[in-house]
Model the fold of this input.
Amino acid sequence: MSQLSNVPGTPGASGQDKKAGAGAEPEHEFLTFTLGSEEYGIDILKVQEIRGYHAVTPIVSAPAFIKGVMNLRGTIVPIVDLRIKFGVGQAQYDAFTVVVVLKILSRTIGIVVDSVSDVLQLTAEEIRPAPQFGAALDTEYLMGLGALEGRMLILVDIERLISSREMALFDCDEAPAGTTLVPQGEQHALA
Done:
């Protein structure tokens, strides 16, 4: 069931969390995972649990990255495959494939990733701003890049991504403050 054994304060925590710099107070904790050959991180406070991947019930006419739904202790949970959404690697389902169950606003949502690595603590100095690529690459959902011990992590603003209009998982009135559900430049028919 839950595999958050590296999270400080949880049963089974190893106490070997990666601390950033001697005496430096960690600013943010990130659950790290892989998609294809890249390593990503999301805010650990959004993570509810980590589960092995099991077959889901497909939803007709859903986008390809929405694999379907699963029943999690009586709660119907939409499952999003981030490998398909981000276009990285082959979406193969094996013993290492996991579902990270998130609590975003009032909803429970699962994301499929290749594997979960660990929990890292990064100071503000170790988080670099996301580079701007113009229209060629959308960096709207990136918090930045984490640099620690020769590793480069792509830090995803998972709440902003999951609650975005293109994911179609939230109604307009459920969107968090600061989330634009109508893309800029697009007008309503009645405007």
Summary: Residues 82-86 form the longest helix (5 residues). The chain has a mean pLDDT of 77. The two ends are 49 Å apart (CA to CA).
